[in-house]
Amino acid sequence: MDKLEIKIIGFTALVLSAFLISLMIAMGKKNMDVPACIPYNTAFSKPHLKQIDSTTYEAFMVAKMWSFEPSEMYIPVGSDVDFYLTSNDVVHGFHINSKALNMMAVPGAINKQTVHFDKPGVYKIVCHEYCGTGHQNMQAEIIVNYKTKPKN
Amino acid sequence: MQISKSLKNILLVELLLPTFLLLIGIYHGLMQVIYRAGLIHSQKEFHLDYYQGLTLHGVINAVVLTTFFAVAFGHACMAFFLKKEPNKNAAKLSMWLMIIGTVMAAWAMLSGKASVLYTFYPPLKAHPFFYLGAALLVVGSWVAFFDWIFVYKSWRKENPEAQIPLAILGTLVNFSVWFVCTLAVAYEILVLLLPWSMGLKATINVPLSRMLFWFFGHALVYFWLLPSYVMFYTMLPKLAGGKLYSENAGRLAFFLFLILSIPVGVHHQFSEPAFSPSTKLFQSILTFGVALPSFITAFTIAASLEYGAWQNGARGWFQWMFKLPYFDKENGLFGYLICGMILFIFGGITGIVNSSYALNAMVHNTAWMPGHFHMTVAGPVFLAIIGMSLYIVANITGKEIKFKNFYTMTPYLWTIGICTFSFGLMWGGLMGEPRRTDLGMTYLNPASKLFRPDWVPTTQLALFGGIIMTVAFVLYFISIVATLMSKKVKEVVIEFPVAEPLHEEKPIALLQSFKPWLVVMAIVIVLAYVPALMDVFKYTGKGAMPYTPDNPVPVSISK
Q1: Per-residue pLDDT tens for A97-134?
Q2: B185, B249, B257, B283, B290 from A12: Cα distances, Å
Q3: Chain A contacts of B54, Cβ < 8 Å?
Q4: Best A8, A90, A113, A122 residue to mutate vs chain B (most B CBs within 10 Å)
Q5: FRET pair for B533, CA 20 to 30 Å: which of A82, B152, B263, B340?
Q6: Which of B218, B267, B268, B452 is catalytic?
Q7: What is the pTM of this model?
Q8: Is this complex scored with an ipTM above 0.90?
């Protein structure tokens, strides 16, 4: 094979490895990973928000045609929230805008990802997988505020 | 060279049927950008709703058009490069199976009984004809492939010493990948979906069905792409007035696609439960591997183009880029292929972002995704398909292409449209704008509580790009219809521009035989997919009942 051709294949392999290595380093620094797998259990089909300690929460989210439950959650700034997600009917999506939290809600399976909220604000959860005629209505909110609400 | 009447008719049907269906497919593409930009705040305008239109858009443009073209182009390559026509009856059977399948699926979609999108994710349920139609389309393409194997074998007997022509290698690699990957989706359709959609089975294993779909789903994109690669290697250098820089590089690239196209499907499922992180990481790394043949292609074809431009007097490092026959009306096909290649640079790079494991969380299922894949499937794939379709049609009907200005301008206008459209979608995607969503009803409706003003500029850009793309297609369509209606002016032939290799290369033994590569293909698939399959069974609980898209109560109960 042509010499330049062989060089370019080697160079490409190096570039792709560099992409992969920098990805690994960035993931380590940002403490990011893909969702974890949890064995299926019907206990996850009951939607609720549970406080573990002052800054740790567990959100058991259930997606269904065409809403999320719970649909509104109040969480203090600086919290870590473990989101457990499943679906009661068809496949749904679960994306917290401006956060790297992006999961599929699949019936018969449990998804889990953790996110840290370090800034106050209203975070929108948008369903991003087509789930029927009401798909575009399917949204929920996480309100992240300071622990002691400022008095009016 | 001459072709038989029966092959000519088959090619005409297989190239023109999807071209006319594109009228529906592209109309719905335009309607989507209109809905999404919030120009229409309703679910249903002109009798077809958003998700029904989205299903038609995906199935027609990405499945029907691409499959018909791959088969027709394969027939043409066999006839031209091996000087052997495919078997008449096999080609006819293949064509009729594909047509019947398309008609069945089209009926289901147009009557609103299959608004489940082209991924047909259960437990959303479509009419059984939708699944059956898809299966027949696939089986029809298999029939053509099985026949080509015989054609190739008989050619091999007559030419035991000759190297297999690169175009034939590419076509056979493509359909080998296609056959293996469609086995999974055939199983999904025939064993899981059909009995369940007909009410014979109560529930379905959703994670399993999704795994099977994506076993097929990513190889599918290479099935779309490889006919374009065949054109890039064997024709584009000639169109540019040059020669192919290295034929062995092309052979290596095709064989790498053979081993790596399938075992990467889980990279569409990084955000899903039921796959362990190690399964996802392994397939992420393999996806980086499948980028390698595309990098090789980019280098080899760029070198070939540079050589071509030198023949036309270009000097120095950069001048060659400006000395190519971009707007040559007698060489319109060049524009389709070069624009496709340029778009694929961006399509490929964004693809690497998507397949980057945890980084995928930033973009998964957001508008970024259609932004990415329109620069691949609506870039090199679509442009090569329509450019080559008219080229072949004109040749085999003995006609001159009419409205050559339109034919020549289309790819450039299309490229401007796609860039605008994809930029809008990708920008919106990074701000969380979801794909596959009738945004005009809520998120882009100022009267709705869910209104998102930050998505206004991005959806407007996509709208603008979509309009330009539609205009480009209309120009193309005028050209093809006018060509068909014009008088026959030359002999009926099948002819391709053939690029010679730049220098004689010693044949490499490993690149002469399919067998070692097929073995490696099987091993890599087993390594990648056995853990995935084990994960699915380990982490999945109960099955799911069928739902129609308009009802939150499962079908069996709501009846």
Answers
A1: 989 899 999 999 999 999 999 999 999 999 999 999 99
A2: 33, 14, 16, 19, 12
A3: 130
A4: A90
A5: A82
A6: B218
A7: 0.95
A8: yes
